[in-house]
Design brief:
By secondary structure, this protein is α/β, with parallel strands linked by helices. The protein is 39% helix and 14% strand. It has one domain: HAD superfamily/HAD-like (Rossmann fold, 3-Layer(aba) Sandwich), CATH 3.40.50.1000. Helix 1 runs parallel beside helix 5 (138-152). The model has no long low-confidence stretch (mean pLDDT 90).
């Protein structure tokens, strides 16, 4: 897990915000690993989060190859919209945190309130984030969300 991720997720949990993971996992289509192995990885992640009194509410993944042109591969919106429907989430009141331009593209295409990029490598420059919301860590992105939400009320 990235440094500060568990603490950031716990902070979101404590503020009553749902945490959803949407991920591309083409390694399944490529035969690198199976869906059972991926489920085991997700279970291990949840156990690691639980040690920090944190949890992810749901995980959605695309198992397809990039050449399959499916609707669920980020930056397409099918998985995010399915998550929103399944968990009764208002996407327009939601935030996307990601580490790649395709995450920002997904959030924008789905109509998220704001899209935040996390760059572990400070030398990277966001290519597709006109809002300028780029952070050095997941935790600092979460702090921005919490502050933004508290200042709204």
């Amino acid at each position: 897990m990235l440094p500060g991720a568990a603490e950031g997720i716990r902070l979101l949990n404590e503020h009553g915000l749902k945490v959803i993971v949407v991920t591309n996992q083409s390694g399944i289509a490529r035969g690198y690993f199976t869906e059972d192995i991926l489920t085991g990885i997700h279970d291990k992640m949840q156990k690691g989060l639980a040690e920090h009194k944190a949890h992810v509410d749901a995980i959605y993944y695309c198992p397809h190859h990039p050449d399959d042109n499916c609707d669920c591969r980020k930056p397409k919106t099918a998985l995010l919209l399915k998550a929103a429907n399944d968990l009764n989430i208002d996407v327009e009141q939601s935030y996307m945190i990601g580490d790649a331009d395709k995450d920002v593209q997904l959030g924008k295409a789905a109509g998220c309130k704001a899209c935040l990029l996390v760059w572990q490598n400070q030398d990277k420059v966001p290519l597709d984030n006109p809002q300028g919301l780029a952070f050095a860590s997941f935790f600092s992105a979460v702090e921005w969300i919490i502050n933004h939400e508290e200042n709204r009320h």
